[in-house]
Structure formats: C-alpha cells, structure tokens
Fold:
Amino acid sequence: MTENRWLQMIEQNPGHSAWYIERWRSMAAAGDDLDGEARLVDAMAPRGARILDAGCGTGRVGGRLAALGHRVTGIDLDPVLIEAARAEHPNAEWIVGDLAEVDLGATERFDVIVCAGNVMTFLDPATRVDVLARIRSHLAPEGRAVIGFGSGRGYPFEEFFADAAAAGLSVSQNLATWDVQPFDAASEFLVAILSGS
Ligand SMILES: C[S@@+](CC[C@H](N)C(=O)[O-])C[C@H]1O[C@@H](n2cnc3c(N)ncnc32)[C@H](O)[C@@H]1O
Structure:
C-alpha cells in the first residue's frame, strides 16, 4: 500500500485524474485566473530561464511559463496528467517520474524549480527530505526553488523548514500567498523561496 496520497486517491477512484483534468479545464473555460503561481515565478526568473515544474500535474504552471518564453521541463508521477500536459502544452517537456528519485543528468540545472499546488502534502512522508534534496541537486548555482502548500494537510510548516534544512536548502523568503503577501505565524499557506545552502 503506497503512502503517496495522490496514488492513494487514484487507487480509490481510477477516474480521479480525468476528473482533475476536467476541473482545471472548466475553470479555464469560466475565465478563472489560473496563472498566479506562474506570474511569481516569471518575476523571479531571467528571460528564457530553465524552469522545472516539480509535480506539474496538467502543466498548468509550467505551460504558462513556456508560453512566456521559458524553457520548461515538468515532472509528475501521474501518466494521465502528463498526457494532458503534453497535449495542451507541446512547447515544454513533460516527464513521468517520481520526484523522490528524479535524476535529469549532471548538466540539467534549473534557474527556478517551482513546486505548486500542495504537491509536498501528497508525498509519502518518508520521501519528503529525498524530494527536497533532489530539488536542491537540480538547482543551478544561483537557482532558487519556490514551494507552496497549505496548512492543515498533514505537513506542518515547521517540519517542512526542518526537512528543507536537512536537504541542504535555506529559506531566503517566506510568503503567505503567490501574490506576495507576508507570511506570519497565523498564515494558512506558505510560499517558501529557497536556495542551496
Ligand atoms: C494537486 S496536484 C498539483 C499539480 C500542479 N502542480 C498544479 O498546481 O496544477 C498534485 C500533484 O503532485 C503530483 N505528485 C505527488 N507525489 C509526487 C511524486 N512523488 N513525484 C511526482 N509528482 C508527484 C501528483 O501526481 C499531482 O499531479
């Protein structure tokens, strides 16, 4: 039995991924703003940056960044979502893989690694430090990771900060939202900006 919460949901409901794809499609059709994460990442990145979308899902964030001219690779363990990303955003590279094991090769280093949409809270808890260490090892020397997730999802922010430190990542800034509201002890969401320490 997997401890990964996304895989558990697929096991319990094989239609979960198709439902998730449709959910984003109907929000897009309704004109909802789905680009908040991509706007922050674009502001952080040089033009034509190398960007890794870690736990990319349907490519919602990375696809927008590719449309803005960045060179994007996305990785996700759900092949149904990767298929949707390939169909909807052919201007980026989409890979099926586990963030706990990803190794894109010695020369693949990223200016920004974005991990949006509560990905950290779906991981098998035993792999959290491994995932953060893989993120760190794929950062370019001046690269930064930006990781966002909500409270009340089984991964207290203090544990995340300890895990990030154990993985060799140091926090350069904490935000409470993707539109750059300040983080404090009462914040219910964290957007952490980290670099290799
Ligand atoms: C709520 S979705 C967010 C998708 C996307 N980041 C977004 O914001 O639109 C969470 C994603 O995390 C992915 N995920 C969970 N554990 C993973 C792992 N170990 N490696 C890669 N992807 C993982 C799931 O497959 C799923 O696509």
Notes: The mean pLDDT is 97. The pocket of S-adenosylmethionine is lined by residues 4, 6, 55-57, 60-61, 75-78, 81, 98-100, 116-119, 122-123 (CB under 6 Å).
